[in-house]
Design goal:
The complex is a heterodimer of chains A (169) and B (182).
Chain A: H1 3-15, H2 23-31, H3 33-47, H4 50-54, H5 58-98, H6 103-107, H7 126-137, H8 157-168
Chain B: H1 12-20, H2 24-44, H3 52-65, H4 76-94, H5 114-132, H6 136-146, H7 152-159, H8 163-181
Helix pairs in contact in B: 1-2, 2-3, 2-4, 3-4, 4-7, 5-8, 6-8, 7-8
Classes of the chains: A mainly alpha (169), B mainly alpha (182).
Chain lengths: 169, 182
């Protein structure tokens, strides 16, 4: 490392009062125009803005910074709460949208979706089927009062057995 | 924030940890400790004299908001300088490229030797104007070296570069400033 490089590295520390020039270094600074220029620049720059810094009201700055941080902290908390509620609402909406598509929900769908096969009814004629339907549609509370059997009077024993089997499922 | 058991003042890292734990006095101490240096950095980088206090306030506000971003690898003050540098860049863009610097806002002190003060102030002002014409990395490396005496390792960590590159930036800055100040 040349003398010029050594001095260049040391200049900030000397300018800030953390180090001092040796006699040899001082002599070099006086002889070397390049180093002399750099030293003038660095020493001037090291003092730049000292008066401005001294004029800053530290108490005022601190109060304003802390005040803004308190307000900002409150806003951040509100934002976090808002985001939490928003997340819950979105999750709820998603569940409601997806629920009808799940196997569980399909299993509990109305019975109209189910296909029942009742081979016992295949051999029945229209009047007999109507009678069966009427008996099924009868409210439960009136079931005990009996089915209107007027239309069954003409059926033989085998046909009646078919009807009974159909009613029992 | 009380001194450490050994009687020494708490380090920046300890103050930051205390602030993260909710101790506002730690923030007050950090502001007190670094206020002047941040103000000088902003002024030397081209901020107008009348803007410096507001910019210092904004720098500390931004710093405390994202204090988790300081991992302690670079000095806290160097990290503050990078925030102040970003703030100046934002201000510069906000003003659509107009320099934040204002020559007219110089307040010449009333002293016994006004002629000598004037010469000194003119030299300082030329350096300040020269600094505003440097690329950002060159300016910040130069100020961290000349005003803070930071080593290249610390400067490199703060500015996200290598110590070798920081050294090169410093020497480029010196060379250009010499030309600009002449």
């Amino acid at each position: 490392m040349t003398m010029c490089e050594q001095l260049s590295d040391k200049m900030p520390a000397v300018a800030l009062g953390r180090a001092a020039w040796t006699d040899a270094e001082r002599a070099h600074l006086e002889e070397c125009a390049d180093c002399g220029e750099e030293w003038a620049l660095v020493s001037e720059a090291s003092r730049l803005g000292l008066d401005v810094a001294a004029g800053i009201d530290g108490h005022h700055v601190t109060e304003r910074v802390l005040g803004r941080l308190r307000v900002d902290g409150g806003r951040m908390r509100q934002r976090r709460i808002g985001l939490a509620f928003g997340g819950l609402a979105a999750a709820a909406a998603l569940i409601l949208a997806v629920w009808p598509l799940t196997p569980h929900s399909r299993a509990t769908a109305p019975a109209t979706a189910a296909e029942l096969t009742l081979p016992e009814l295949d051999s029945l004629g229209a009047p007999e089927l109507q009678a069966v339907l009427d008996s099924i549609d009868t409210p439960l509370g009136t079931a005990g009062q009996g089915v209107d059997t007027g239309e069954l009077d003409d059926l033989n024993a085998q046909e009646l057995q078919h009807v009974l089997d159909g009613m029992e499922g | 924030m009380s001194p450490t058991p050994g009687g020494e003042a708490p380090s920046d890292a300890e103050l930051v940890a205390a602030y993260r734990a909710g101790d506002e006095r730690a923030a007050t101490e950090l502001v007190r400790r670094h206020l002047g240096a941040v103000g000088r950095f902003l002024y030397s980088s081209g901020a107008g004299r009348s803007d410096v206090e507001d910019l210092v306030q904004e720098t500390f506000f931004r710093a405390f908001r994202k204090v988790d971003g300081w991992r302690g690898d670079a000095a806290f003050r160097s990290w503050l300088f990078t925030i102040a540098g970003n703030l100046l860049r934002d201000e510069y863009r906000k003003r659509k490229g107009r320099q934040v610097i204002s020559i007219e806002d110089r307040d010449l002190p009333d002293r016994a030797d006004p002629a000598a003060d004037l010469v000194a102030n003119e030299a300082a002002e030329r350096i300040r104007q020269g600094l505003t014409r440097l690329p950002r990395l060159q300016r910040e490396v130069f100020l961290l070296r000349s005003q803070e005496g930071r080593e290249y390792d610390d400067i490199a960590k703060a500015l996200g570069t290598t110590p070798g590159a920081a050294r090169v930036h410093y020497h480029h800055a010196v060379k250009r400033l010499k030309e600009l100040v002449k």
